[in-house]
Amino acid sequence: MDDIFLKILRGEIPATKIYEDETTFAILDINPHNKGHALVISKEPYRNIFDAPEEILSAMIKTVKRLVPAIQKATKAEGFNVGINNERVAGQEIMHIHFHIVPRFEGDNVYKPARHTTYKEGEQEELANKIKAELKKIS
């Protein structure tokens, strides 16, 4: 079944497209955190960062890098966030890989309040060692 991004790409659903090349396209988010919030989307329907080949991820980040200065200047943003959500628990609503570019302004309170946690004594090093061990398995 086709997802909403493929329908947008084919022109079946309206969207405000701001960029397109052979691998990616970008639209303004219809439910933005701030005006100028854009989505950079792969033309092929990969579910998330784990499914997308490295060449697709590379093309997507090149598109992000190209768009950020234009969005920042057009919106007069003081900064920006670039993010990607992977799976529903992380906030992914459309199961088709896409990066968010969110213009930021002093006092906009986007993503506030942020939740932070702490490590118990020795817990951070223990977790780092587990991650390193997993990396060795996949290298």
Word description of this protein:
It is built from three helices and five strands; from the N terminus they run αβββαββα. Strand 1 and strand 2 form a beta hairpin. The protein is globular, with a radius of gyration of 17 Å. 19% of the residues are buried. It has a five-stranded antiparallel β-sheet, with helices on one face. The two termini are 34 Å apart. 32% of the residues lie in helices and 19% in strands. The model has no long low-confidence stretch (mean pLDDT 94). It has one domain: HIT-like (HIT family, subunit A). By secondary structure, the chain is α+β, with helices and mostly antiparallel strands.
Total helices: the number is 3
Number of domains: 1
Give the spatial strand order of the biggest sheet: 1-2-3-5-4
Q: Level of helix content?
A: 25-40%
Mean pLDDT: 94
CATH class: Alpha Beta
